[in-house]
Amino acid sequence: MAIRSATNQEYTGQTSKPTSRFGRFLLWRNRLLRSSTFQKWAARLPISQSIARTRATDLHHILAGFVYSQTLSASYKLGLLECLKDRIATLDEIASYCELERDAAATLIKAATAIDLLQAVNSDSWTLGELGASIHGNPGVQSMLRHHDLLYRDMADPASLLRSRDNAALRGYWPYVDGNHSDPAATARYSELMADSQHLIANHILDAIKLKPQQRLLDIGGGTGTFARLAAARFPEIETAVFDLPQVIASIAPRYRGTTQVISGNMFEDPIPKTFNTISLVRILHDHDDDPVDKLLARCFEALPAGGELIIAEPMADTRGAESIGHTYFGFYLWAMGSGRPRTKHELQAALERAGFASIKEKRTHIPALVRVVTAKKSDVIFY
Questions:
Q1: What is the CATH number of the domain that holds 265?
Q2: CA distance 15 to 8
Q3: Is the pLDDT at 145 greater than 60, yes or no?
């Protein structure tokens, strides 16, 4: 069997391990599927026509995925989504608003309608489709759109990105990945993105957990305190605090400092206060590599009292029905960013166990594709 390496030098050889029966079946299946004779036969046979059509469509969706993303980007940048917010507009009105020639506007409208960003009202007027309308209710998506050009730039040559990510555009956008916490613009960008996207995520997390009156919650890496404030509003009898870098904490508006304590520090270096019996890590771990994650979990374990609880909330790999979001989207995004990786629930459980945690449970959320929640306890009995 001929195999082509990353350097495009061809070599032949056998696999290093004996192939299992399932592996042999997969190799046979793949040889069959790539056969032009089989493809023609399958396309004609009634029983396999539906499967063949579905597979051909799925493959084309993958091929066209970048164009779908850019259609969304164009709809946002040119103001199409804003133009149709709470209104119906004609082709000429849209063309004028977006400053496009009529034919160009028609091309964008048809493309956006096909992916449900728009919906036709009649032959010459449109409004937002279900996906387009939902974007207005999710400022986190809009924040992501504002910097996704950098990811798209990196993904224009994914082979080069995989061989070296040192000069990735997205990595330069988030300099804190390389330990540079002094860039106020980067701090503001990150804080804005986290704040914009936290509301929807936080409510799903808080729907999945129940905080008791005696719990004192420290949200580590909590940015400008959105999750801590929403937790305090949902469970008014608990105490909450946010722990983040000094420049992030400094950006918290004075009006938000009354109900939630603010503590500045580096979660990997500075002491984590030991006056809290609950710690939350909301979309923190997947931004970091394995060694920092192990270090942070160990520090959280040390900071918690016996019986204390750790709450982890983030999108996870291998989430049923959202596998491509975990490994494909977040896999490449975090690779280009220069830090972190999507982890499965089982990988997080193993990391928690290494840190000493027990009673590890998943709490179901309404939209697991966006966020899943795992809780763990520091045992009341510590063995030495």
A1: 3.40.50.150
A2: 18
A3: yes
